[in-house]
Amino acid sequence: MAVEIGEELFFGEEGNEQKYEVVYTCELNEKLYLLAAPSDELDKENGEPEIIAFSYTEDDEGTLFYDEIESEEEWKQVEAKFKLYIEEIENEE
Length: 93
Known about the structure:
The protein has 93 residues and is of the alpha+beta class. It has two helices and five strands; from the N terminus they run βββαββα. It has one domain.
């Protein structure tokens, strides 16, 4: 089961978790990535939400494991794919 756009995930320390909604997923260089924004920020009409990004893997039981994106090159590649996705959405409207 891959992560899907619109799926809700919780990030943060136990007891201090915040609900996020997946806004984009992609695969690059055989790695899976997701971008998410706080659910409460997506409901607001003004301003852009804070976006977080991770690479992730999944075990046989469907448990997700997140890794930070550490290299600048990796960030640039994920960001470029996300920008193309946003442009496609805007062109459809």
